């Protein structure tokens, strides 16, 4: 019994001492040190002994990320969207008959990357939404020099644009990598001008989160355009102003053009680390068409249509005469005489369920398939007419600008 009490006593003392030592920064710890005879008074005299110096030890922190950044940074630019000052901020100017100055002012800023130098010219790729609505465009190089830029062409569907600048002072251009070869988990770097040129050449690092993510596209009004884009998803920080800048791999190759980020789920929940970039293979394909034609020519069917899901089940049976097993497709509402669909024999109330070997469940998929084809190509089509499945072929002989469907 005595041994047991002794053991308890030792444990208690040990715990008490540990508590005092561990709580030396708390009230009560000071008393313990003072009682032990240690002098804790602040010394007097000169404070020169408190000076500091830096070590001359040099740490080599060079990394592959730094090498990649240095490879690309001089080819990354800020793109400045200029608009004419056509209205005055003074509400009394109109009453007094004063006219606006018409002076060009910076309306917005984004990023871009110089990808080609040819002769005296250099070419920059950026986002369409960066240059949209501009009265004039300027490029701010990484060395701070400003250059005038001319629009070569732009495409709202893919959100890409090509600009031309004087290449006399351009020393560095970026190269494109193969976006099909990227891997989920691979390190990715974004370079650009988040929040404008004050933060030009900013670098952020993350990983590839998904190689091919389907996202809906919205217009400048925030409404859905009915189109979708296949993009690279990354958690690399992408902020306003990064749009149009490059997403690069550790080899310093451009694997995508940063285009957008997801900031909210639409229901009040903030979202972090979900950014998107247009894959480099798509970028180069669009660039080459814009340089050649100034626009993108896409095949058109020459029809008006709507989703089968928007048709009442009763009408699907009585009007379209569809089997109950058909759940998805698009309904032809009108055809343009002489257009590809009409030439292939499609008529009003036909229900398209397959195009170019792919199943059709919504009108967005038709647009996606057409946008992947070339004018002049021939594709297969599957459709129901009066309850019977039919097959055929459509020659995509015309593009969207040639077909204007009217009521």
UniProtKB/TrEMBL annotation:
PANTHER family: PEPTIDASE S12, PROTEASE DO-LIKE 8, CHLOROPLASTIC. Belongs to the peptidase S1C family. This is PDZ domain-containing protein. One of its GO terms (biological process) is proteolysis. GO terms for molecular function: serine-type endopeptidase activity. Gene3D superfamilies: 2.30.42.10, Trypsin-like serine proteases (2.40.10.10). Pfam families: PDZ_2 (PF13180), Trypsin_2 (PF13365). Residues 299-387 form the PDZ domain. Keywords: Hydrolase, Protease, Serine protease.
């Amino acid at each position: 019994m005595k041994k047991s009490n002794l053991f308890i006593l030792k444990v208690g003392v040990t715990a008490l001492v540990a508590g005092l030592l561990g709580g030396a920064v708390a009230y009560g710890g000071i008393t313990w040190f003072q009682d032990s005879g240690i002098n804790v008074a602040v010394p007097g005299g000169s404070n020169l002994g408190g000076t500091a110096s830096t070590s001359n030890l040099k740490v080599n922190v060079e990394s592959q990320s730094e090498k990649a950044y240095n490879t690309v940074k001089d080819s990354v630019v800020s793109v400045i969207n200029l608009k004419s000052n056509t209205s005055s901020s003074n509400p009394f100017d109109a009453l007094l008959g004063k006219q606006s100055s018409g002076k060009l002012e910076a309306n917005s800023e984004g990023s871009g990357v110089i990808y080609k130098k040819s002769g005296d010219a250099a070419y920059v790729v950026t986002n369409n939404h960066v240059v949209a609505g501009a009265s004039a465009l300027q490029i701010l190089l990484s060395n701070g020099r400003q250059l005038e830029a001319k629009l070569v062409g732009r495409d709202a569907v893919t959100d890409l644009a090509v600009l031309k600048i004087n290449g006399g002072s351009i020393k560095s251009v970026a190269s494109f990598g193969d976006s099909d070869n990227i891997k989920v988990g691979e390190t990715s770097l974004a370079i650009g001008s988040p929040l404008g040129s004050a933060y030009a050449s900013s670098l952020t690092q993350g990983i590839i989160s998904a190689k091919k993510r389907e996202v809906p596209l919205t217009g400048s009004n925030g409404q859905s355009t009915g189109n979708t884009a296949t993009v690279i998803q990354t958690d690399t920080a992408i902020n306003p102003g990064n749009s149009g800048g490059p997403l690069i791999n550790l080899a310093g190759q451009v694997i995508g053009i940063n285009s957008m980020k997801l900031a909210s789920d639409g229901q009040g929940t903030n979202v972090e680390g979900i950014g998107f970039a247009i894959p480099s293979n798509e970028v180069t394909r669009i660039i080459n068409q814009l340089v050649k034609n100034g626009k993108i020519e896409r095949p058109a069917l020459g029809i008006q249509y709507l989703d089968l899901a928007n048709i009442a089940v009763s009408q699907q049976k009585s009007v379209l005469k569809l089997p109950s097993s058909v759940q998805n497709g698009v309904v032809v509402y009108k055809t343009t005489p002489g257009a590809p669909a009409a030439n292939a024999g499609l008529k009003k109330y036909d229900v398209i369920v397959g195009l170019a070997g792919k199943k059709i469940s919504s009108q967005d998929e038709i647009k996606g398939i057409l946008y992947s084809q070339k004018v002049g190509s021939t594709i297969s089509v599957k459709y129901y007419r009066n309850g019977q499945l039919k097959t055929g072929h459509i020659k995509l002989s015309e593009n969207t600008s040639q077909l204007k469907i009217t009521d």
